[in-house]
Design a protein that fits this description.
Length: 150
């Protein structure tokens, strides 16, 4: 069974953001699997680097959507992203300095709690606003235009 199981209750009903969240779930699950398999430190650190990089991409996606949708709490949410990004980097530092797999698993549990909390609490604050402004329709039109340009 995966470390984090994606459920419909985790969905924010915005395809781009759900796909970002699913990608982060997969990366964290990969890291967990590699820890459990006793993989080399370089492999573990590579996956954690991917988590860091994709977290930044995801936060950028959210911030763009919030700005485009005219969400009144966009600036506050962006500040929250800054704090969360620093927290993830701090978790990475603790993961890198972990001396045992138990220490690594402790950080992984914190990472899991962070992601689930981000999706089920923090992001739920703006979901209704995004849906009311038709953000999925806007994204679909952008995808169509990008496809036509390519």
């Amino acid at each position: 069974m995966p470390f984090i199981v994606w459920t419909s209750g985790m969905s924010v009903d915005v395809k781009l953001l759900d796909n970002d969240h699913k990608k982060l779930v997969l990366l964290i699950n990969d890291l967990h699997d590699e820890v459990m398999a006793g993989s080399a430190r370089e492999q573990l650190e590579r996956i954690f680097d991917e988590i860091i990089g994709y977290s930044r991409i995801h936060f950028d996606h959210e911030e763009l959507l919030l700005d485009e949708a005219g969400y009144s709490g966009a600036a506050e949410h962006k500040q929250e992203h800054g704090r969360k990004f620093e927290l993830i980097k701090e978790m990475q530092a603790r993961f890198r300095s972990a001396e045992t797999s138990a220490d690594e698993l402790k950080v992984l549990n914190e990472l899991k709690d962070w992601l689930v909390g981000h999706v089920q609490k923090s992001d739920q604050e703006f979901v209704q606003h995004l849906k009311a402004t038709g953000v999925d329709s806007t994204l679909a039109e952008l995808d169509r235009l990008e496809g036509a340009a390519g």
